[in-house]
Amino acid sequence: MKRTDARLLLPALALLALFVPVAPAAAAGKPRKPAYVPALRLVVERAYTLNARRVALQHQRVRIRGIVRQYVPGQVMNVRVLLGKRRYVGVRRVVRQSGGRGVFSVEFKAHRRGTLRAFATGAGLSARSRSISVIKRSAGEGQTGLHVVFLQHRLRDLRYLVNLSGTYDSSTSRAVMAYRKVTGMSRRYSANSSIFDRLAHKRGRFVARYPRHGKHVEADLSRQVLALFDRKGKLFRVLIMSSGKPSTPTVRGSFRVYSKTPGTNAKGMVNSNYFVGGYAIHGYPDVPDYAASHGCLRIPIPNARFMFRWLGYGDRVDVYR
């Protein structure tokens, strides 16, 4: 490089350095504040989560676990569990060592509905737990409340077609019927304790027979339900249906949707999706819990528009028993 070029380059580099931000050394090495850990905390266990709330079913066992940040031999905690403003449980617990911490627990049955909260005091410490909403384990037409919300959310988690209305409406009744069919329970539209217990543990999911068929519908004639799967073969929705009665059975096999007719035709079929011959998935006013059609796959009219929009030309329909 020539001397004249070097003389011009040095001032340019100095000017460029003025525009390069340099983080202060103190900020780069600034220590982070440690996360705050309370001296005593109470954790709710064996309860379920619903929209950031803790929920327990009536008559189930609940456990409150206490954690003392620093264990000292001889610590004793007084634990009270209140239902509303009334005492529900009152016990004393000796704190035992677990590593460098202290732990204790209280377990009880939530026999009564309402809001539970635990309080612990002792050794100069105090804490209270999150509230627990104890809900009843049955629901029926027209009911509202947290137990209905819990039921609807659990059904939706398992991909049953249900509205999250907070009211036990016709959508909820149909979803409960679909759940009963899938799990082999008696076919009714109400939800009893067995359903709540199973849903609490998220049991009762429909299992695909043809998971590699991509986006498709499975019509299970033995259980009288339709299961919808997305393009990745994952369960999308489950709903009730009524297939062909013994004298006019539904044809079995693997087919493709070849024709779609919107609206209501002369036979009362609503939003029809034809998959072979004159056989179609369509809405109909009468959808009993058993096989009763002339061969088609009937679904409730409130679900017909949803099905018509979701199901496309060429989508596979697998019909089996």
Please characterize this protein's 3D structure.
- This protein has helices at 3-17, 25-28, 146-157, 170-183, 193-200, 301-310, and strands spanning 40-45, 48-50, 53-57, 61-68, 76-83, 86-94, 96-98, 101-109, 114-122, 125-128, 132-135, 216-220, 225-229, 235-240, 253-256, 259-264, 270-276, 279-284, 297-300, 316-320.
- The protein is elongated, with a radius of gyration of 31 Å.
- The protein has 321 residues and is of the alpha+beta class.
- Strand 9 (114-122) and strand 10 (125-128) form a beta hairpin.
Main attributes of the structure:
single chain, Immunoglobulin-like, L,D-transpeptidase catalytic domain-like, 20 strands, 321 residues, seven-stranded mixed β-sheet, five-stranded mixed β-sheet, alpha+beta, 6 helices, elongated
| CATH level-3 fold name of the largest domain | L,D-transpeptidase catalytic domain-like
Q: What about the largest sheet?
A: 7 strands, mixed
SS summary, helix count: 6
* Backbone CA Rg: 31 Å
DSSP strand (E) fraction? 35-45%
User: Fraction of residues in helices?
Assistant: 10-25%
Total strand count, please? 20
How far from one another are the termini? 86 Å
> What is the averaged pLDDT score?
92
CATH first level of the largest domain: which class? Mainly Beta
Class from helix and strand fractions:
alpha+beta
Which spans of ≥5 residues are poorly predicted at pLDDT below 50?
A: 22-26
Shape summary: elongated
CATH level-4 homologous superfamily of the largest domain: L,D-transpeptidase catalytic domain-like
Order of helices and strands: HHEEEEEEEEEEEHHHEEEEEEEEHE
Task: Please give the CATH architecture of the largest domain.
Answer: Beta Barrel
Number of domains: 3
